[in-house]
Specification:
Cro/C1-type_HTH, Lambda_DNA-bd_dom_sf, 434 Repressor (Amino-terminal Domain), DNA-binding, DNA binding, mainly alpha, 6 helices, XRE family transcriptional regulator
């Protein structure tokens, strides 16, 4: 459910409800309501969170099971680090 994904993504990024609210331009109580499942964010805020967390809106909405990470806005050095980490973990997982 979207409420669980919002909470998990926010926690993973080390953001408080207030910090997330400030970054996307809503109140803390709106974020709390989304996380409690009392309301659902509008399309505008779904897009804002997807951009903030570098994920797809489909993942946030539960239409896609795997989490894609978008590299837009990252420096070339940050991208290379992510590629290296991905290579390390995929090689480790496929090693006999």
């Amino acid at each position: 459910m979207i409420c669980d994904k919002i909470r998990t993504l926010r926690d993973t990024c080390g953001l408080s409800q207030s910090a997330l609210a400030k970054k996307i331009g809503v109140t803390r109580s709106a974020v709390n309501a989304w996380e409690m499942g009392l309301s659902i964010p509008t399309a505008q805020y779904i897009v804002a969170m997807a951009q903030l967390f570098h994920i797809s809106t489909d993942y946030l909405l539960g239409l896609q099971n795997s989490q894609a990470i978008y590299l837009d806005g990252l420096t070339e050095q940050e991208k290379q680090l992510l590629y290296a980490m991905y290579g390390y973990f995929t090689e480790r997982d496929t090693a006999p």
